[in-house]
Amino acid sequence: MASKVKIFSCSASKELAEKIANSYGQELGQVELQKFSDGEFTTSFVESVRGCDVFIVQSTCPPADNLFELLLMIDAAKRASAKKIVAVMPYFGWARQDRKDQPRVAIGAKLVANMLEASGVDRIMTMDLHADQIQGFFEVPVDHLFGSTLFAPYLEGLKLDNLVVAAPDAGGSKRANAYAKFLDVDLALCYKQRKRANEISGMTVIGDVKDKNVVIIDDMVDTAGTLTKSAELFIKHGAKSVRAICTHAVLSGPAFERIENSVLEELIVTDTIPLKQSCSKIKVISVSGIFADVIKKAISFESISKHFVFANQ
């Protein structure tokens, strides 16, 4: 007899979770969050999850409460005798801390993986990890989905002539190169030097962008400093237009103001993180259909390879 599927949401991803549940074909499950006066909080399921396959949707964007709420929900499901517990994490926070790149620093992504496993999770579903190797931090299955499933058709639909795909830095060259190969267009690179995090000391363009329509590809946009400066640099080098595609709209600090005042034609993002405010240049594409389909296929043990449009190019 097949297990009953129930989909729940934590606080940070309520709207996206409702879309996923609707796409799956059922109502979102009921949970309760109780907060104490000192800031401590506790979570509980309003309905029974005994023997069920439980999917808990939560992007672990800041603050850290979002991560801890997910951990509490997983623990509650385990103690309520759920058959299987899957953490659906459209945005995996702390992913930028994926290695020890200087002395005496933490590897935050590995620590988060350890905490999720300790809480009792059986599977992880996520999208566009900042570093692919984070999958190896887990001893449970990880379904690593790609925003290219949505973005590639969108780009093809624009029918831009003289298209060039660009990476905003050397670290994003592999991702941008996959798009360039799939679309059969040239690749450009914006090489940057940093003095410290979120502060750029110098940038230069590698590749020909003159009279081209440039599309910058990245996994996330945070303060938008690199993104908007890259766009300006491409325009200075003769680009006809510049767009950007970033899966995760972290958008902190002056990001919205920078994007609104930038030379970007548009910034295309997903709803893995809810937008803090509106912006005329930002277009949002929902990932709800992809996650709903992957949940269905996980339950029926079907292949999900169709969602890896060109991940291995």
Please outline the helices and strands.
Elements: E1 5-9, H1 14-24, E2 31-35, E3 41-45, E4 53-57, H2 65-79, E5 84-89, H3 108-119, E6 123-127, E7 142-145, H4 148-158, E8 163-167, H5 173-183, E9 186-196, E10 199-206, E11 213-221, H6 225-236, E12 241-249, H7 255-260, E13 267-270, E14 282-285, H8 288-300
Parallel strand pairs: 1-4, 4-5, 5-6, 6-7, 8-9, 8-11, 11-12, 12-13, 13-14
Antiparallel strand pairs: 2-3, 9-10
Helix pairs in contact: 1-8, 2-3
Can you offer a commentary on this structure?
By secondary structure, the protein is α/β, with parallel strands linked by helices. The protein has 2 domains: about 5-145 and about 290-305, Rossmann fold (3-Layer(aba) Sandwich); about 150-285, Rossmann fold (3-Layer(aba) Sandwich). Helix content is about 30%, strand content about 25%. The protein is built from 8 helices and 14 strands. The protein has helices at about 15-25, 65-80, 110-120, 150-160, 175-185, 225-235, 255-260, 290-300; strands spanning about 5-10, 30-35, 40-45, 55, 85-90, 125, 140-145, 165, 185-195, 200-205, 215-220, 240-250, 265-270, 280-285. A 7-stranded mixed β-sheet has the order 10-9-8-11-12-13-14. Strands 1-4-5-6-7 form a 5-stranded parallel β-sheet, sandwiched between helices. A two-stranded antiparallel ribbon has the order 2-3. The longest helix is centred in the first third of the chain and has 15 residues, at about 65-80. The chain is globular.
Describe the structure concisely.
Helices cover 29% and strands 27% of the residues. The chain is of the alpha/beta class and 313 residues long.
